[in-house]
Automatic annotation (TrEMBL):
PANTHER family: GLUTAMATE--TRNA LIGASE, GLUTAMATE--TRNA LIGASE, MITOCHONDRIAL-RELATED. Residues 117-139 are annotated as: Disordered. Belongs to the class-I aminoacyl-tRNA synthetase family. Glutamate--tRNA ligase type 1 subfamily. Catalyzes the attachment of glutamate to tRNA(Glu) in a two-step reaction: glutamate is first activated by ATP to form Glu-AMP and then transferred to the acceptor end of tRNA(Glu). It is an enzyme of class 6 (ligase). GO terms for molecular function: ATP binding; glutamate-tRNA ligase activity; tRNA binding; zinc ion binding. The gene is gltX. GO terms for cellular component: cytosol. The keyword Ligase applies. This is Glutamate--tRNA ligase. GO terms for biological process: glutamyl-tRNA aminoacylation. It catalyses: tRNA(Glu) + L-glutamate + ATP = L-glutamyl-tRNA(Glu) + AMP + diphosphate. ATP binds at K244. It comes from Ramlibacter agri. It holds the Pfam family Anticodon_2.
């Protein structure tokens, strides 16, 4: 059996990290098993669905490299297929028309709650042998309800939650088509999963209550349901379910803030799955290791500080040339045009950055004016050190422009003036890059242009 998984978001709001994890795991499982990953957009909620939300889903998945093998498929474009299956179910007596009005349903629920009973449809219009149905009201378009099995249990072995059994008597007859004939969510999902031959459904545990209903529809249609894995919720830093209402950010926000796609995949993978104690791993390692047996059973909590740390580790490990391409894209947004020095500059500063944006902020200091930190300037650029700065500037006019030769010029200046490295390095860093906190002085100067360094040192 070839593995076929799917990600089926509803485009009713932007996609955040909690949502995208539900794409990452089925993508990873399909890739790890040599299977097929399908993207399906469940856009039947016409009032709340939007093209903008679809665009963010596609953009976020593209950035993270979660490319589908098939799709995107849109449920609204499959209405003819759903109606065809509905007709087949009507012909087989698997569904029936129900004329109970909304007011009647509300009254029924109120009565049941007053009696401390579970609110549910009571089967008034369900045809049974020997049962007399109420007279059909005039001018009322019925809904179609699915004839849920009576008695027995619906059960499945969930790959995360273990064995789950629900009594069929707990489930009422689900509405699967509205009065205007449009099909409802649980029905569409089953038809899609059958048609797309989905073998494994990996999704959030907010769908657990839908699963027994969907399994019964599968079996009514003569199909075996897929394997289910229901993922625990992702919580925000306050311990609430991650959502837009509780401050969750769109996936693309992290891209725009300079996070790396591979770091995001690494971090999201660990929000509910583990491979021993491994914290930092490549995309390739993740796909080699991933399985459904090591999914976590309890809710994971998002931690922005941890995400930044994971991102910093991937930045450090990244090859300088590849990193420079990302930095260049950010510099161009600042109207800065970099040159061949950018890979070396990126390599020089990547150890002290959490994001590509921070790295770009350092890099742009090599390509334009710098804002000198006034407090650091007052502290480090003193009358006592100005002669040494002047001597270094004079020596830097003629030395070969290499890190080694610049280092020798710095050492000679220290010897001649009888001062220690920090007394010279701090003010020179402030003048050249605007701050005293930089990598080694010789490396910073070598990555700068000679004429720029000389011009900035004259400001002492």
């Amino acid at each position: 059996m070839k593995v076929r998984t799917r990600f089926a978001p509803s485009p009713t709001g932007f996609i955040h990290l909690g949502n995208i994890r539900s794409a990452l795991y089925p993508w990873a499982f399909a890739r790890s098993q040599g299977g097929t990953f399908i993207l399906r957009i469940e856009d039947t909620d016409l009032e709340r669905s939007s093209q903008a939300a679809v665009d963010v889903i596609l953009e976020g998945m593209r950035w993270l490299g979660l490319d589908p093998d098939e799709g995107p498929f849109y449920q609204m474009q499959r209405m003819d297929r759903y109606r065809e299956v509905l007709r087949e179910m009507q012909d087989k007596g698997l569904v029936y028309p129900c004329y109970m009005s909304v007011a009647e349903l509300d009254a029924l629920r109120e009565q049941q709650m007053a009696n401390k009973e579970k609110p549910r449809y009571n089967g008034t219009w369900r045809p049974e042998p020997g049962k007399t149905l109420p007279p059909v009201p005039e001018g009322v378009q019925p809904v179609l309800r699915f004839r849920n099995p009576i008695g027995g249990v619906v059960a499945w072995d969930d790959k995360v939650k273990g064995r789950i059994e629900i009594s069929n008597d707990e489930l009422d007859d689900l509405v699967i088509a509205r009065p205007d004939g449009t099909p409802t969510y649980n029905f569409c999902v089953v038809v899609d999963d059958i048609d797309m031959q989905i073998t494994h459904v990996i999704r959030g545990d907010d769908h657990v209550n839908n699963t027994p209903r969907q399994i019964n529809i599968f079996r009514a249609l003569g199909q075996e349901p897929p394997v289910y894995a229901h993922l625990p919720t992702v919580l925000n830093e306050q311990g609430e379910k991650m959502s837009k209402r509780h401050g969750a950010k769109a996936v693309t926000w992290y891209r725009d803030q300079g996070y790396l796609a591979d770091a995001m995949v690494n971090y999201l993978a660990r929000l509910g799955w583990s491979h021993g104690d491994d914290e930092i791993f490549s995309r390739e390692q993740f796909l080699q290791w991933f399985d459904l047996d090591h999914l976590g059973k309890s809710a994971a909590q998002f931690d922005e500080a941890k995400l930044k740390w994971v991102n910093s580790q991937h930045l450090k490990a990244m090859e300088d040339g590849a990193l420079a391409l990302l930095v260049e894209a950010e510099l161009k947004k600042m109207s800065v045009t970099p040159d061949a020095r950018l890979p070396a500059i990126s390599g020089l500063f990547k150890d002290r950055c959490d994001t590509v944006l921070q790295l770009a902020d350092w890099a742009q200091r090599f390509y334009g004016d710098v804002q000198v930190n006034e407090d650091e300037a007052k502290k480090h650029i003193t009358d006592g050190v100005r002669p040494a700065i002047g001597m270094l500037a004079k020596m830097l006019e003629t030395v070969p422009w290499t890190k080694e030769d610049i280092s020798e010029a710095v050492k000679e200046t220290l010897r001649a003036n009888g001062i220690k490295m920090p007394q010279l390095a701090m003010p020179v860093r402030v003048l050249v890059l605007g701050t005293a906190q930089t990598p080694s002085l010789d490396a910073v100067l070598a990555a700068s242009k000679r004429e720029v360094v000389l011009e900035r040192l004259k400001k002492a």
